[in-house]
Amino acid sequence: MKLRETVLQATYSLQANKLRSWLTTMGVAVGVFSIIAVMTALQAVDRSVASGLSSLGSNTFEIQKYPATFFGGHGRSRFINRPDITYDEGLAFKKLMRGKAKNIGIQVSSSGNLATYENLSTNPDVLLFGADVNFASANGFDIETGRNLVENDILYSRNVALIGHDLLNTLFPTGENPVGKSIKVNGKVCRIVGVFTKKGAAFGESQDNLVIIPITRYLAHINVKRSISITIEAFSQKEYQATIDRAIGAMRVARGLTIEKPNNFELRTNEALVDSFRDFQRTISIGAFIISFMALVTAGVGIMNIMLVSVTERTREIGIRKSIGAPRTSIMRQFLLEALFLSLTGGLIGILAGASAGNIVAIAFNIPPILPVAWVIISIAVCSGIGISFGIFPAYKAAMLDPVDALRSR
């Protein structure tokens, strides 16, 4: 038989048992789905992390009360019970670090805030920052319209504010200049003095859905007991590590820590975030691969079982084909193709479903759709291997049937 005829014959045989064929392919689809969905989601998060870190700046790090990522357990109470970093400690730190860093910004924030202007309002998800004059430059924000905070805003706790582009679009949809207009944030009046340039999303969250007010006003009227964080920008990548070392020493002095006491604050660097995510990604990837491999082996056993049943059911057909001159290689090739079709069909279904499910995470993180090409190729190769390896024994058994005994079968 020519290859084309072999392929058609294998296709007709699978179509004759549609339900059985589909049930078999679903086993392969589940295994491929799990690995493709997980890898697509991890790539989406990875791109979001890379985007977020690039927005922070390569020479930037942050001092705060809590680590960037930590999980439950005994360590959680250690972080919660730490004393808050106070604004006075932040000012003392800035004084100690004067001339040793390019920018030092002090900020404190809270989420879930509502901003209104006349009869328009935002969703209650606005991020409200109390910040000093260096917040914008230290955190990579540029001013598009108006001005930045100035020292007198901080000194006199003025009710001024800068807003991001999300608030500009929501509260001023007609395009009017918001500078000089008064908005309310959680019922408290603020006069807009500037608008930040659109910055986009980082870590799946918009960086434009924010309001910045003087940190002194925040601490006096919003939340006096909030722990602050400090963003430090080194002069260059070459001086980055030295700046970190100086910042740790300055913070220990600002907090009054003696030499025998451990640090009661955390340093958040881009490298630490990346390492933390990579460890998490590696663990999830290994777990997903093991689960997928087990599912695919189970599916392979199912393919072998179905093909053995098929050989038994078609024994007389095999005998007729052999009696009219069909070679063993032709029969073996047909049954191998049937097993391969089952495995690859399940693999393609799993790839499409897995990529679709994984891209839900990409959408949530405002990342363009992703297809993990390397894992798609690996999945197709594995499915091919599963189909051939688990189909070769039934194919060999079919090819080795004695034509006389096969013709006697009913």
TrEMBL record:
Record's bilayer topology term: Multi-pass membrane protein
Keyword Transmembrane helix: yes
All copies of domain ABC3 transporter permease C-terminal, residue ranges: 289-400
Keyword Cell wall biogenesis/degradation among record annotations: no
Domain MacB-like periplasmic core: 21-243
GO annotation, cellular component aspect: plasma membrane
UniProt KW keywords: Cell membrane, Membrane, Transmembrane, Transmembrane helix
Entry's Gene Ontology molecular function annotations: transmembrane transporter activity
The organism's place on the tree of life at top rank: Bacteria
Transmembrane segments: 21-42, 286-311, 339-367, 373-393
Subcellular location as annotated: Cell membrane
Protein family membership: Belongs to the ABC-4 integral membrane protein family.
PANTHER family in alphabetical order: ABC TRANSPORTER PERMEASE YTRF, MEMBRANE COMPONENT OF TRANSPORTER-RELATED
Protein name: ABC transporter
Biological source species: Prosthecochloris marina
